[in-house]
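Figure-free illustration: sequence to structure, shown twice.
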Amino acid sequence: MAIQKVNILKFLELLETIPVVDVRSPSEFNFGHIPGAYNIPLFDDKEREAVGTKYKKEGRLSAIKEGLKHSGPALASKFEQGQKIAEGGKLLVHCWRGGMRSETMAWLFSLGDIEASVLEGGYKSYRRAVLESLSEKRKMIVLGGMTGSSKTHILRYLKSSGKQVIDLEKLANHKGSAFGALGEPAQPTSEYFGNLFFNRLRALNNDLPFWVEDESRNIGSVFMPESLYLRMQSSPTIVLMMDVNSRIPRLMEEYSAYPPEALISSLGKISKRLGGDKTKDAIDAVERRDFAKAIEIVLFYYDKAYLFGLKKKDSKNIIYVNSDTDDVESNALKVSEAADRIKWT
């Protein structure tokens, strides 16, 4: 069965219905891959290094011989994996540049009457498409507000009411503050985060705006793609203004369930910014389980930091919405009404 190559546009269309097999090494795959892809590596990490060394020192034929030495005994297992994954007798296959690794595996799968299409340019062309897409101008609404304003809950409510929303903190497995890793799984790499965002973006209606939460350049250990961050900085931002007393109860509900030692460890991440005395006071409050006091101390720092960050945005793009309640439905309605006043150009 002939192996066909497809460009990135056709590939993105096909991956809606056809499984994707990434034949790169495990470390390459783990650093960043197409969401939903299966990893059936032609070579493991050590084997890939050996083949690459042969290619650089002795050329293509020596590299092929070295590759056969390593991959030959395991081809039967890879063949069976491909058969299990293939739906309707079809697979999409890619490596880093769309070269020998993907062509070899596509040939192997074709022996089982699987129609295997190879991505031209490989994963490299996919990443180029991701970054180009993130640079495009879209109707984005950024929901801002100081820590504890229930922005995530409001976005979830807006999504349930039919609005287009991309939850950046969910993609990053982090709530965005020094305490953001508590209760969350391991974070993805920054590259994979970009791929996940692109995946969500492709499912949206570009004629309608979509919402994201205001974030700093990094969410925990994940750094947003530069083009995405700059687009957020220049997009209309609706800032929900709530006083401290309206925000403390929800933060207590979310964080008081964690062990004191976990909270104290998180406090250590911002101790230099809080200052020695404030850090000691916050730790003492946690140990006494006076979470309201600890939160009040921490919010003083985070509020100043957020208001300082707002100054980096164009004031013409900011709409302030005042609220004296932490009721999610009520605040969702207020920010939604504010969004209706945005004039898109």
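We now fold a second protein in the same way, so the two outputs can be compared directly.
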Amino acid sequence: MNLVERFDEHVDGLFETIRGNREADFLAYKASALAENSKLWMALCVITWLRGPSYRFVAKRAFVAIFVESAIVNLGIKTIFRRKRPDHSGPHPHDLREPWTSSFPSGHATSAFCAATLLSDGDPALAPLYYLVATVVASSRVHVKMHHASDVIAGIAIGIGLGQLGRRLFPR
């Protein structure tokens, strides 16, 4: 077993201690489901847009970036890495869509942190909330056994990187 596999197994063991907890399961499954197809992030873009004219560029930039990020990850990176998803044949307390793409990287984590990076630009009051929501969504993917922890970490890094690139290419 290599270092990454040992890391993933260790983190999965930590999550195993809270799987089956009603509240933890509810939060993880709901966060995963809400973030499917970036619905959560699009909704936050709309809410940001509605906050007024000074937020519209940030909302529009994040909205477009979500589609670009999804194409890069799902049509690009995931086709290169054909990593098998964790075994999740055990009981699931809630329904969840089964992805058909590669496990690496986590698209949920990538879109979460890309959106959080872009939506928090110039918004120090809400920045911690964006990143908290992104963290809950990303970690939910390990909890529901749709991703290995290393998939999620890679997704976070890619998401932040793409968000920072978006900030540089299209500054406020």
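Summary for the second example: The chain has a mean pLDDT of 92.
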